[in-house]
Amino acid sequence: MKLKGYLLGFVMLCAGANAQAQEAEKGTLIDKIIAKVDNHFILKSEVEQQYSQYLTSGQANTPNRCQILEGLVVNKLMLAKAEIDSVIVDDKRIDGELSSRMDQMEAQYGSAKNIVEAYGKSIVNLKEDLRLSLKEQLTGRKMQEKITSDVKITPKEVSAFFARIPTDSLPYLPSEVEVGHIVRLAQPNKTQKAELVGRLMDYRRRIEKGESFEDLAKLYSEDLGSGKRGGDLGFSKRGQMVAPFEAAALKLKPNQLSDVVESEFGYHLIQLLAVRGQEYHARHILIRPDYQKLDLTEPTHFLDSLRIVIQRDSLTFDKAARAHSEDKLTQDAGGLMLDMASRSTRLPFDGTMEPGLYFSLDSMKVGTISTPIPYRTDDGRSAVRILYYKAKYAPHYANLKDDYQKIANIALTRKKNDAIEEWFLKAKEDVFIFIDDEYKGCNVLSGGVIDN
């Protein structure tokens, strides 16, 4: 049995749920349980759904149904072993992921109403489904990290791995680019800010007159994770929350309400519930501006002026990004964007690149800085950015000199897969695993997977 990298991932839950719902509407989905790992079930529809998604994605080396089932069994085994070994994902991490996913969906679909229409579910029901799937996803990921935490790769091993690749099998890599950006977020104007502050102050007065903080948080908080729990954030360690929130919370006495607190996430009304050593228990109501209505004039002027300073050699782009960019993912790297798959600053310059970035670079010369460009962040916020076209690399066959990090990442993934395979063969003895007769030929539990 060889566990491929794609077998260790989880399906994109939103797309999966929608695809399954569409098939059900057509009346073509005949479902049944085809595998069980302790208390975790695998449905035939899950295998078919993943198989269809791989086929439509157009990617090379599409896994067969047996390989997909094997991956699902490994994932479920990780969940079962996580329960046995008490590997737990903190609720705050799940809530944070849920909030981020919902923000991305709202940015993609335009509004909550459009999401409801697309998925045929209320936001409340969709969030519950997503939360359960996210909990499984994050638990499996944490278990996988535990299994492979000691797996490392040395330069000698990377060289040996590369030497084993036949010359005629070396991948031909497309053009790559290095590009940096400096991002400035649009901020609400005085009128918009006053409206947000006024809403929270109204909630504060209502609570002081006897209304329930919990009920108001459930109704109005835009923190999708804590909102359904009445704004309850549980106990937080000092330094865990963003600075403005924590500073305001720790100034309060138990049960006292804060004034309106502004942070990078929006505007908060905070109530401190308790302090326990280095931890504190708070709840909040969060509201955010309508990002689509924010004025881009100020960040555009700021970046236009900054661009002139950089072009005059009065300031390097690297230092300007570290000092002024509001994109935390790239700020500490001097604004350089990262390919999340390879962890490299060299991005494939092809159809996989985000279209807005691709067409901007296509009209620029290496070494130049763009004029300010409107930009939408991953969490849906309105912003403006300037781009720095640092370098371009010609298409070439993979080699150790130019592509060491990519090759090292592949070698490390293989080594981690070997560690998980070894773990699987031992761990499967600790849990009950059932495979339906229809899939017995896949040999999931006997050390080999046949083509299907």
List the helices and strands and how they pair.
Elements: H1 13-26, E1 33-37, E2 40-43, H2 44-57, H3 65-84, H4 91-109, H5 112-119, H6 123-148, H7 155-163, E3 172-173, E4 176-185, H8 190-208, H9 213-220, H10 224-227, E5 232-237, H11 243-250, E6 261-263, E7 266-276, E8 279-287, H12 297-311, H13 317-324, H14 328-331, E9 347-348, H15 355-362, E10 373-376, E11 382-393, E12 396-397, H16 400-427, E13 433-435
Antiparallel strand pairs: 1-2, 1-13, 3-12, 4-9, 4-11, 5-8, 6-7, 7-8, 10-11
CATH class of the largest domain: Mainly Alpha
Average of per-residue pLDDT values: 86
| Helix share, percent | 40-55%
Strand element count: 13
| CA-atom Rg in angstroms | 25 Å
The number of helical segments is 16
How would a textbook summarize the main sheet?
4 strands, antiparallel
Supply the number of structural domains: 3
Q: Please state the structural category.
A: alpha+beta
Stretches where pLDDT is under 50 for at least 5 consecutive residues are 1-29, 448-452
How much β-strand is present in the residues?
A: 15-25%
Q: What is the CATH T-level topology of the largest domain?
A: Triger factor/SurA peptide-binding fold
Order of helices and strands: HEEHHHHHHEEHHHEHEEEHHHEHEEEHE
Biggest β-sheet: strands ordered side by side in the sheet: 9-4-11-10
CATH architecture of the largest domain: Orthogonal Bundle
Signal peptide: 1-21
Protein name: Peptidylprolyl isomerase
Domain PpiC: 174-274, 277-388
EC number: 5.2.1.8
